[in-house]
Amino acid sequence: MPAANDMRPAPTAGSTNLLALDAASAERFALGLGWPRYRTTQILRWLYQQRGRDLDQMTNLSKAERADLAAVAHVGRSQDSRILRSEDGTRKFLIRLDDGLAVESVLIPEGRRLTLCLSTQVGCTLDCDFCLTGKMGLKRNLKAHEIVDQVLTVLDRLDRDEHLTSLVLMGMGEPLANLDAVSDAIARLTNEDWGLGIPGRRITLSTAGLASRLPDVAALGVNLAISLNAATNAQRDRLMPAVNRLHPLDALLAACRAYPLPPRRRLTFEYVLLAGVNDADQDAKRLAKLLRGLRCKVNLIPFNEFPGSPYRRPDDATVLRFQAHLKQAGVDTFVRKSKGRDVLGACGQLGGERGQAPVVLTPVGVGC
Ligand code: SF4
User: What is the pTM of this model?
Assistant: First the structure.
């Protein structure tokens, strides 16, 4: 099992980070060393399937080849990760990046399912009013290997009897505002030959509604979720001003209707329920009308409160009534249980933990 907190010396200047190379660049790199093409697959399998960190242990190369490779390259895995454990079994991973920023991933157990929620940006481009990540602003986009490294790091730290069952790109950031890196990361996560071989149907990309980029998601072969949260433009302007200015509800719903859904798949609409803001019977009825005719389901997310937020979580009766209205209108609707609230790992709470000391956190927060 590779080390979780890697204490190897820093790479020398000019050394190539193998993990930062996409498949085509890795091949060019191997060919540049005068190696045959099949060496690329060996290197990639070792990086992703073996989760290798130390080139000395890359035993599918000869000792001389390992030395040649180590002279010019290294494996730039994150070197420091910390886990916050929630009472409900949820684990939030704080992973330190090369430039000192931290990224957060959340591992959520539910029955036999084990879902990993990945981040695609540090902070977020958008400024959804109910979201703690949005309050950070955008620090920067993650690179493809930094997205994949979250999965590798978590896999390194799973218990022996644990297996990831699904991935959701729903953590910090708007995935479609970092599409090139997200596409490259998904290629590495799904590739069955040399990558992690995770089926696309087990991966869900959640967007706040960058409508013009939805066709790009279809090409990735993963599931699509849309964080809707409002049934009128007035509501959405208040809750998600940046994205609704770019793509108002009509345009977003039109893009959803045009989305080339594969057979037996459906769109997911996420709807954060905020007490007294978007949780009225009328809102449920408007939402049902908006979604009429779409092959979809709705996930209702009762707001996870956080200090300083003006929003409140609706009571259970209101949540159930909202769900009942949608079901009555024929829309499959689920209420998402909040997990990891005590470690700020719940939806919309990411980015809320800054200190190095063990955290004592009150339930808080919502996101994509
Ligand atoms: S809800 Fe999603 S898109 Fe909106 S600010 Fe939060 S992370 Fe960004």
Answer: 0.91
